Amino acid sequence: MDVVKKSAEIAQAKEFIDQLDEGYDAPITQGGTNVSGGQRQRLSIARALAKQPKIYIFDDSFSALDYKTDVNLRNALKQHVDATIILVAQRINSIKNADKIVVLDKGKIAGIGTHDELMKTSKVYLEIAESQLSQEELLR
Q: φ and ψ at 7, to 5 degrees?
C-alpha cells in the first residue's frame, strides 16, 4: 500500500483519491467513466509508477492535465523516479526541460537537442514553440 500511495502522490492523484468516499478502495468503472479525463490519466500514470520499471514511455499521457498539474507531475517524476523516461508530447511545456528532444515532422526527424538548441536550429520546433508559448516564455 505504501508503493500505491507514493505512486499516487507522484502522479498528482492523491488529493482527488483522498476526497473519494472510499479513498483508495473506491471502485473505478470500466473505462474510468466515473472520473474525469485528467483523473483517469493520473490514475494510469500512478499504476505505471507502482510497477517501478526501468523505462517509462508516456505517450501523450499529460495531454488532459491542466498546466499546474503537468508541471507538478514532471517535477515529482524528476525528484522521485530513477528511471529512463520517454515522453511523447505535443505540448512544448511538457518537454521543454527534457535532456533530449526529438522533433518529428511528417514522420521524419526535424531536429534533435535541448529546447534552447532546437529554438536556434529547428524551424519546425521554433514554429511549434511560437504557436504555443507567449513571448515571455519564448525568451526564458
A: -65, -40
Q: 107 CB contacts (<8 Å, ≥6 apart)?
A: none
* Beta-ladder partners of 55: 84
> Tell me, what's the pLDDT at 139?
73
The DSSP 8-state label assigned to residue 97 in this structure reads T
C-alpha cell at 55: 523505462
Which three-class secondary structure state does DSSP give residue 43? Answer: helix
How far apart are alpha carbons 5 and 16 in whole angstroms?
A: 12
Burial letters 45-77, b for 16+ CB under 10 A, else e: bbebbeeeeeebebeebbbebeeebbbebbeeb
Tens of pLDDT, residue by residue over 50-80, are 999 999 999 988 888 888 998 999 999 999 9
User: Which residues does residue 57 pair with via DSSP β-bridges, in sequence order?
Assistant: 86
Identify the structural domains of the chain with CATH numbers, from first to last. Answer: 1-89 (3.40.50.300), 90-140 (no CATH)
Kindly report whether the global pTM for this prediction surpasses the value 0.90.
no
In terms of Cα–Cα distance, which of 27, 22, 57 is closest to 43? 27
